[in-house]
Amino acid sequence: MNIAPDEAHRFAARFLGRVSPRESRKLVFFPAAVSLQSAAAAFGVRDDIRVGVQDVHWEPKGAFTGATSVGLAAAAGATAALIGHSERRHVFGESDADTRRKIEAVLAGGLTPFLCVGETLEERERGETEAVVLRQLRAALFGLPPEQVGATVIAYEPVWAIGTGRNATPEDAAEVHRRLRTELTSLGGSQVPVLYGGSVNAGNVESLLARPEIAGALVGGASLDPDTWAQVVAAADRVGTR
């Protein structure tokens, strides 16, 4: 719940002045729903930048007060949607079944689903990381045709490394990404990008993206300031030019 509609225009102007287009890189912003249309208009001047919605409901319309349908999000300028973000799962109680309904709705609506998976600290300490992330992945994608699996993006976001000051090492992240990649291949999504999201910032993004298993980053707090966010992008670009 950050960046109001009027702030989105100022944010975009400052960010765009610091980050030049690159064909080898894609940027997606996920603003609050009330700022979605404003952000889409502000960033619409750049072909390398897309805008997505933070959450959707699986029903196309109806009496679901406070929810946003895929159609409404698309009409406001969204081309992507976050699904199963850790806060949706652990703050709002979203279930694996809910993420599956949302994935199907987003794919049917022509948006790109960014499916988030990740374990809590307690689950990690019990040695359940692999079981948790694979359960979440399978619940969302198992049984979908390969072309639909291939149209998704996956983000591994360990809950214990979000806003806690604790970071997964590049090796920790790469290990989970390898396991996710194996499972995605079995589901028909061998080319699906797997991003890392867990307190990503300008200081650690290079070491994370240097690992071949990590295809990109899902950035949280460091993206709330256009200057800091531009620094993250610049650091990521240095990896891409090596």
Write a short abstract of this structure.
The chain is α/β, with parallel strands linked by helices. The protein has helices at 5-16, 36-43, 70-75, 86-90, 96-108, 121-125, 129-141, 146-149, 170-186, 205-209, 226-240; strands at residues 27-29, 49-53, 80-83, 112-117, 153-156, 194-196, 216-217.
Q: Can you give a write-up of this model?
A:
This protein has 242 residues and is α/β, with parallel strands linked by helices. The protein is 43% helix and 11% strand. The chain is built from 11 helices and 7 strands. It has helices at 5-16, 36-43, 70-75, 86-90, 96-108, 121-125, 129-141, 146-149, 170-186, 205-209, 226-240; strands at 27-29, 49-53, 80-83, 112-117, 153-156, 194-196, 216-217. It has a 7-stranded parallel sheet. Strand 5, helix 9 (170-186) and strand 6 form a beta-alpha-beta unit. Helix 1 crosses helix 11 and helix 7 runs parallel beside helix 9. The mean pLDDT is 95.
